[in-house]
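Chapter review: from sequence to fold.
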Amino acid sequence: MTRFFTDLFNEEEANVIFFGIKINKKSEQLLDSLRKTSWFVECFDVDSGKNLLENVKIYDIGNVNQNEITTKIKEITGRKKIPLMISQTHLSTLYAMKAFEGVSLIVFDAHCDLKNKYVDEKVVVMDDRDDKTMNCVTWLRRLVENRNLKVCLLGIRSCDEDEVEVMKNKKILWFTSNQIKSDIRRAKDVLRKFSEGEKIYLSIDVDCFDPSIAPAVHYLEPNGLSFREFDELTEAIKGEIVGIDLNSIACSNEQSEFVATKAILKALGKITLVDNK
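The token string follows.
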């Protein structure tokens, strides 16, 4: 099996455990393609002079079913390792977060995903049910409605009035793409304060990026983040990274896969844990 990034370490040695979410045959093909792409992305960051995997020993356990996410992540964190998950749907993050207590959530996304109900032909569901309240557009609403959680949304540029009210009521910190572009220094300062001293779960929806660099998403929202803006914001994150996911690539596309893989690398570069014992 082609593994994600590297096959240098076994599962016991690793401090990061990678897995993909198996939804259907198409999702498995996409995960295979992402794994192959990862072997062509350099881990060395020429600007910082840093190997982004210098603190990372990664092991790929393959793909798991969607109903195994919470159990699998509890198993991984129980061994003091960091889960790294890739899924076609952001709903997977809801099940991942059920495995954590006392963490803060940072989400890169074009959308708030705070709708109460939503369905159309582009929404990826996790099972055979046509559930308008449990999908990739409602997952964050389901997460915060009965849970006291610190959340920061970065890069949003598509939502409705009801979602804005939810953000206000739940005290969700958020920056639109335009706010980041006009004053990224302020966004970075606020993000540092938000994340400092916290345990951080980082979720990256590929549609946070501008469609010009990552077109293989379900909803092509214009005026997205550049990779430089994503990079600067990621560098501003403080605290301890305890989980990472990347989600919502709609189809196999080399350009989007390279951007997605590089984004994961940047996230892994924030890991400071070396000894997992």
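Two observations follow directly from the output. The two ends are 27 Å apart (CA to CA). Residues 16-268 form a domain with the Arginase; Chain A fold (CATH 3.40.800.10).
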